[in-house]
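for the writeup, i need someone to sanity check this before i put it in the appendix. the sequnce is what the collaborator sent (i think, or maybe the updated version? ugh). structure was predicted straight from it, no edits. if anything looks off just tell me and ill rerun, i have time this weekend
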Amino acid sequence: MEDIPRDRLSGALRRGAVKKHVAAIHVSGKLTLLQRKLSNVLLLNAYDTLTSRSRHQIDARTLCLMIGYNSNDMDTLKQSLRGLAETVAEWDMLDEKGQQEWGVSSLLSYAKLKGGVCEYAYSPALAEKLHDPKVFALINLNIQRRFTSGHALALYENCYRFVRTGSTGWWPLDLFRRLMGVDGSAYYETFKHLNAKVIKPAVTEVNKTSNIILTPETRKQGRVVTEIRFRIKDNPQLAILDIDDGEAMRHGPIYARLRQMGVSDRLAKQWLSVHGEDQVAAKLSYVEARKNVKSKVGYLSAALDGDFNNDADEGKRSEPPKTSPQAERLRRIIDLVNSRTPTQRDADRRLFLSQLGDARARDDFTKHGWMSPLNATRIRLFWAEMAPGVFDDVTEELDAEV
């Protein structure tokens, strides 16, 4: 599965990283790898409205794709959501006044799947903790998708927040076992087993997979290991995976032109990150040259999404006359695409591409997007499945594919 572009996600999801509160990290050790990834994506999706909305939604197929498993495997998604609802989150920390606060909550207060949408909620107390900007760790979704071990991802999450200090500090082994989700296991009470089955494999995967390198160190009382800490440094081989808040983009001329046109800061960074400066510059020049365009930002969005063929004569839209049944279907497809969030649009493209085994068909879709003539029937069937009934009143038989 390819890395997730930073516009994959709607709202906070577009950041590509989640501010994950230390409380959430420290209590989710018993989650499976899939549940841990699911927890991160759900949190990122909800982050902007954690304290202002009591319920959050995300397209179920998009959610599956974000986590990296079959988008039709709803049973696995149900099991993972059930696991989050049954997992207890516990925090014990100082509040803003220096008072100790202890709390407990399920990770999700509820979750449901209906009409292809996953709806879920956090308890008010946990939502407040998860949204606290003062104490958090940045979890890069591109990085988390690379992990194959739950222990490795748990170790990464717990270490990354200390990357600026260079060390986690000393953790008692009891705490470390809890963070890794192996507390209560007699087998892992023996450090030899803990080291061989958890620490060494997890460190190896973190160092191979992520943007940091860990070096474990232990401290003993007599001959017994009682504490562990991890030295942390940047991984120069995978530094490209580091979180980029887009600050550098703000100093470029293309960003300035986008902002002058009225594009928001977040959307400008999103487009530059996903499409690159050259492509954005070309589309921007094309749109700027158009006359009698009421919404240049909307026109530019459509151009970047492939809805316009700016190589055609006079920059006309690459769709047939609006009076034909096929044109009506295409119009509805465009409306469906435009109604989707940036996260969902990218997930839709990836999902559709994954269904194309023929290289020629893939190339045509890459070039023309949803207007691909070679994939006309496949595209119609895809959207008919995504939005049942959307073409029901367009009764004429589809033309054969080109």
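Strands lie at 17-21, 56-59, 88-94, 100-106, 110-114, 117-121, 136-140, 171-172, 212-221, 224-234. The radius of gyration is 24 Å.
thx in advance!!
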